[in-house]
Write a structure and sequence with these properties.
With 125 residues, the protein is of the alpha+beta class. It has three helices and five strands, in the order βααββββα. Helices cover 26% and strands 26% of the residues. Strands 1, 2, 3, 4 and 5 form a five-stranded antiparallel β-sheet that branches. The longest helix has 19 residues. The protein is globular, with a radius of gyration of 14 Å.
């Protein structure tokens, strides 16, 4: 984990909007696909639950990652699971965003922290 950073994993189908989400979306100029209401609506079809990883530092939300766990082999929890980083309803374009204040050299570590939090949330598969 990166010092001074926390990661929250939200299941879009069941969860409330993360604190500060609308402010982050507006401040970073994220388009309508990143509105929590739309992400939640697009996560409703059957299948793997879409997850939203919210990364926070002392100044607030500094990164967001969206994806869905995908079972590679076998039935429920019997094979490897990968996190398909894709916005619900959109097959192209990055499913992660960083606050403009986050330097390029720090972004990989924040993405990795979100990935590790998703693994903890989903359990070893």
């Amino acid at each position: 984990m990166i010092k001074g950073v926390t990661v929250e994993i939200h299941e879009l189908r069941a969860g409330a909007e993360p604190a500060g989400w609308t402010d982050f979306q507006q401040a970073e100029g994220l388009d309508a696909l990143w509105s929590h209401e739309l992400l939640r609506a697009l996560a409703e079809p059957p299948g793997a639950p879409a997850l939203l990883g919210v990364v926070r530092d002392a100044a607030g939300i500094c990164a967001a990652v969206c994806g869905a766990p995908v079972q590679l082999l076998g039935g429920a929890r019997s094979g490897p699971v990968v996190l398909d980083l894709r916005l619900p309803g959109q097959a192209h374009g990055p499913a992660w965003r960083f606050a403009a204040r986050v330097p390029a050299g720090r972004r990989r570590g924040l993405l990795r922290a979100a990935e590790r939090a998703a693994v903890r949330h989903l359990g070893w598969g």
